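Entry:
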Amino acid sequence: MLASEYGLVNFVQKVTELCRGKAYFTTPYNLGEYLLMDYMNRKTRTIH
């Protein structure tokens, strides 16, 4: 996900939870880094 608006981030978090999946967050300025939100493992980490 490239957007950083609160509503969109909240939506992605809820869909990730409902699907028991993963979401990757980034920005146009640092496409090489991702914030991984893993609902199944209850972990959040930065991937380079």
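The mean pLDDT is 79.
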